[in-house]
Amino acid sequence: MLRNILFIVFPVIFLIHACVNPSRQIYDLRCENLENPLSITHTTPHLSWKNKFGEKGNKQTAFQILVATDPSLLEEGKADLWTSGKIPSSESVMIKYGGKDLAGHSLVYWKVCVWDVNDRIIWSEPAVFGAGLSEKEIRTATYIGFPEASGNPQSPLLRKQFSYDGKVKNTLLYINSLGYHEVYINGTKVGDDVLTPAVSQLDKRSLYNTYDITSYVKRGDNEMVIWLGQGWYRPGLFGALSTPLVKAWVKKQDEGKWDTWFVSDQSWQAAESGYSGIGTWRPHQFGGERIDASMFPDNMESSSLDNLQWYPVAEMNVSEHAVSPQMVEGNRITETFHAANVKQLSDGAWLADMGKAFTGCVEIKFPPLDKGQEIVLTYSDHLNPEGNPVNQNQEDRYIASGRRNEIFRSKFNYHGFQYLKISNLPVSPKIDDITARLIQTAFKQTSSFQCSDEDMNAIHDMVQYTLRNLSLGGYLVDCTQFERLGYGGDGNASTVTAQTMFDLSPLYANWMQAWADCIRGDGSMPHTAPNPYSAGGGPYWCGFIITASWNSYVNYADPRFMEEYYPVMQQWLGFVDQYMVNGLLEPWPSTEYRNWYLGDWAVPENVDQTNPASVGVVNNCFISVCYETMEKIAKFLGKENDVKKYAERKKLLQKRIHEHFYSEENGIYATGSQIDLAYPMLSGVTPDSLFAKVKQSLFDETEQNRQGHLACGLVGIPVITEWAVKNRQPDFIYTMLKKRDYPGYLYMIDNGATATWEHWNGERSRLHNCYNSIGSWFYQAVGGIRPDEKEPGYRKIWIDPQIPEGMTWCKTAKETPYGVTSVEWTLTGNVLNMEIAIPPGSNGCVVLADKADEYILNGNKLKNKDNMVVLENGKHQISYAWIKE
């Protein structure tokens, strides 16, 4: 039904659209920043859309929203849930729903019209969202699984047969699985998602997914199969039982009324599938899958399923926890490609090079195999000096059925790898028979960057590609080979880059929910979310709940993060207070769920990241940033007493940091490393009178002691990047990025990297979220596109290219919540030419060089009065004599 909504538009609306100039349109309708979500958490959701106008300066001057229980009611005077009326406003992002209470498990239809500057009306196409299940409805189903008395399969099939009389208008399936699931109806897989659901803190919250199954159900007899896999739901993790479990509800709409059709209960049957797991899903033990091909059916049709041994399901009791809809896009296969080459190793095995490191799985078509023949597949992201895959404990095993056309497919596990070793296969597999499938959360890529320096393009592309591969499961992981954990430190480091490059508001909504679910009663936070076991980090990891919430607001104009998680932020800062000694934060102890107390991490080999002075200045500077961020959040929330409280705490802490860590004699903080110097300047610790001196110390440290290289790690890279952008130091970053020897990004690339590494020297993971924070520099400095936190969501866009010496052109684009903004600049001699696009609903502020006496805007020569040009939406051309400061 849902896929046909846009075609079930009544004639009146069609006529309206037929009269509209196609150069003016409304597009990308979103509810809670999701496209047509079938279940949402909030009873008062937020609605957004984008405008596209063909004329420069044209914009939205007012809007009206219609919301109804049926698309045929989306007319003024008929919309039965909400008619907003004409609201004078140019705003189109996160508009709060103001209609009647939304009934559970129902579909809601909406559309919007806008008025432009000429008072013309433009209508959108209709969109839909689902109201989700009520708490009462969630309790009507029971968790079911394979009966323990009949075995303990790790990937069972659960089957339900039902009949259909052909009178139902809409049918929705809700699945709450503890572990992964796939759904099949009458032999056909439902939807394109894989490795479903997204992650959550499973002992506190599990997620349910919603499917429109109207088109899958046929008149007469039907059957549904839910195929389960363990995923993170394994013994010893999150209090999990020994087998994956599922709750399911099927709701149908008949003559406008929604009713329960059937739910998960004892009427279902269970069978083994032939799939089982390898590994424990603990660090370095993620293994893979063992597939006994003789056990699973040829297909999911009834004739094949009937050949299996079926048992009555067991109803299982699970500890009480929250159950809520998945509010992030699912995992999808977003790219497929074949192996680059295959060669034979000395032990007779075959080595397939996939051409690049990636996260996902493979499909392999095997030549004829003997029944019981076991093919072993091992995966690695790099080779040892002898040319063999480094052992990373990633392995699949395929037990042949002896039938023709045998195909291996991963289903409920994945790998991070470039090299695939195939053992016990007597003949070489064909390159075209090995298909790689890159899997990621299905968000939109919203940015592009290209410049005159191919080295910079290569670094940018590597960072962007790496982040795509680390977004699987509705969060950003550190690496997909070894840990798969949502580390707050890695998240803090990469948030600005990731949120610039991609549309990640739903992903961060899912991830922030996990962080809130992880907090302990005393306010203590772990270093990862979800938090299945102890993991290393420090305050920069725990405080992610504060900084990521604020950055999500700045980038997406999404206030939910601050509104919902402000109490959690306060609770954690209360825990921080317990370890303040003489006005400075001191180390806190490790716990069963949190390890270590780090400052910077993964630095080059000749930098001491464990020095107590460095750890102290880094963590105290971060807490100062947290206080400053809380001051801004409290101001947004109208909590004036808190504004004053956090402002005072910030001021006192900054004073104590300077007093304790600054050496007047040497002009340095703590150890004088790059991060020890840059962080006090960035966090407001360094007095204005000493700023130039400390800055020079940073330059001296870099040139004299580090031979012009980056000499910091996971925490230091984002700090030094942000400092350089705010202080207009493009050459400082550029010259470090141009270094080809160790340590550096070009060193990685020259040594075969297709994704960023965990350590500068290539140890452990070569697909990792450690050094990706540099990506923001390409957009905010070189491209010159930056948001304004006072007008978030790129409502106000700063255009301020910072051009490194020797760079001659750059093309940068960023899709904002209001539409696409782009900057293309060329530098010819000392003349800077810029072509700029500003989307409707936004304003651009172009920063001119101080020494430019005049500039040309859209063909008009104008005097430079205040080094600032304000642009309305549309395309513009600016040129002026550019003199580097």
Tag the structure with descriptive keywords.
single chain; 885 residues; alpha+beta; ten-stranded mixed β-sheet; seven-stranded antiparallel β-sheet; globular
Structure description:
Helices cover 23% and strands 29% of the residues. It is of the alpha+beta class and 885 residues long. The strands form 10 sheets. Strands 20, 21, 25, 26, 27, 28, 29, 30, 31 and 32 form a 10-stranded mixed sheet that branches. Strand 34 and strand 35 (584-585) form a beta hairpin. Residues 1-22 have low confidence and may be disordered.
Helical segment count: 17
Largest sheet: 10 strands, mixed
Low-pLDDT runs of 5+ residues are 1-22
User: Please, what is the oligomeric state?
Assistant: single chain
- Binned, the helix content reads 10-25%
What is the SS-derived class?
A: alpha+beta
Q: What is the percentage of strand-forming residues?
A: 25-35%
Mean pLDDT over all positions: 94
Q: Give the overall silhouette.
A: globular
**C-alpha Rg (nearest Å):** 28 Å
Using DSSP, what is the number of strands? 47
What is the end-to-end distance?
A: 60 Å
